[in-house]
Amino acid sequence: MDTLALILAGGRGTRLDILSEKRSKPAVPFAGKFRIIDFTLSNCCNSQIYKIGILTQYLPLSLNEHIGVGKPWDLDRRDSSVTLLQPHNFWYEGTADAVKKNIEFIKRNNPKNVLILSGDHIYKMDYRKVIEQHEKTNADLTICAKIVPIEEANRFGILETDENLKIKKFVEKPKNPKSNKASMGIYVFKTDVLIESLLKHNEKELDFGMHIIPQLISEKNVYAYEFYDYWKDVGTYDSYMETNIELANCKNANSSLNLYDQSWKIYTKSEDLPPVQFGCCCEVENSLISNGSIIKGEVIDSVLSPGVVVEDGAVIKHSVILNNVYIGKNCRIENAIIDKDVNIGEHSIIGCGDDYTPNLDNPKVLSSGINVIGKGVVIKPGTVIERNVRIFSHASDQNIPLHVPSSQTIK
After folding, report:
1. Domain assignment present for 195
2. In sequence order, which residues have a C-beta less than 8 Å from that of residue 22 and are 6 or more positions away?
3. For position 353, what pLDDT does the model report?
4. Cα–Cα dist 175/148, whole Å
């Protein structure tokens, strides 16, 4: 297929706060053994698109190590390639600016079409269907659109189309939306149209939604591709938690994002760890448990990444636990997101009480009762943490009191 895919993966993901403190949003672990970017990369290889450029910027080390030469996605063959494109003299300033700064990479590959993707959404999509419609309609640009409830449309960039799906108007987050076709940030361009349009603009912060798309709608053939299946932006603590737990639910097995569907696999770089070990008195219900984990306690409605240890008497409910976390005996953890390498001392309680006061330091990111603990933190035995608490990765155990009231931030 004569298409070059460019994945925008340089976002800081500020709403993910502690989880993106030491990594870019696409590199954040997800659904146990995966990273967020695995879904977009797997869509590419399942769609037989094997020439990929990944535009990185913010804290790229974790992402670079994860992707490597692209072997898990079959991108290390003679007829395929994955190239990590980092900014050189100047930072990327806007989505379109990032692509503009890599025009020479596009020209060198000389594709018929350029497929521009985000590296931080959870979904399955056969891009071949989008490209097929793009070429059938002779579109200069095709924008993938998710049909959303009309009452939620004011949260998105909204497309207004005619009966043939030709786009007549694009409005960013309209107060009174006239359509429920929301842009997914997935674009297919004719290569010459993309390059010509990028070179026309001299804005410092050049963006597809603000600058490129409105101009092309007025001058070129721009069409929508309607997408009706599962698609989630996991850019907040609430959506990250909700989507993880949703995939852990056994009732989700036949959904459009079935992780066990052999016809559309989600590939990732796997760690060489032994199988999961379950103790004689453990209980696991509606959960995803990754390789290398040892479960002696109780895990309900939760997602555990590789290498997690849950000791005797510990109870984990409605939580996302990342790699190599140790949870001591008789701990109680509920509604928590715990980053890698955290050590939680025995008899600790994380998530309790009726005080749901939003986090005082950053109420926009934490207000629903979730607690978030950063990478490598040590929680002393017997610690009690209430709700909407943020503990950053550089917090020492000496800075964390044995009782942390709701709404607090420990840095």
Report:
1. yes
2. 59, 62, 375, 393
3. 96
4. 15
348 shares its domain with 389: yes
* Total length of the chain: 411
Count the domains in the chain. Answer: 2
| Under 8 Å between Cβ of 365 and 236 | yes
Task: List Cβ neighbours of 346 (8 Å cut-off, separation of 6 or more).
Answer: 311, 328, 329, 330, 331, 381, 382
Is 234 in the same domain as 294? no
* Residue closest to 325 by CA, chosen among 358, 301, 350, 356: 350
Q: How confident is the model over 176-231, as pLDDT tens digits?
A: 888 899 999 999 999 999 999 999 988 888 989 889 999 999 999 999 999 999 99
- 3-state helix vs strand vs coil in the chain, percent to 5: 25, 25, 50
**Longest CA pairwise span in the chain (Å):** 68
Statement to judge: residues 213 and 78 lie in one domain: yes
Amino acid, single-letter form, for residue 146: K
Q: Is the domain of 204 the same as that of 302?
A: no
163, 35: one domain: yes
Q: At 296, which CATH number? A: 2.160.10.10
State whether 212 and 329 are in the same domain.
no
Is the same domain home to 55 and 93? yes
Does the pTM surpass 0.70? The reply is yes
Q: For the chain, what is the radius of gyration of the CA atoms?
A: 22
CA distances to 15, 105, 315, 355, 374 from 367, in Å: 12, 43, 23, 11, 17
User: By residue range, what is the domain housing residue 363?
Assistant: 272-411
Q: Torsions phi, psi of 18, nearest 5?
A: -65, -35
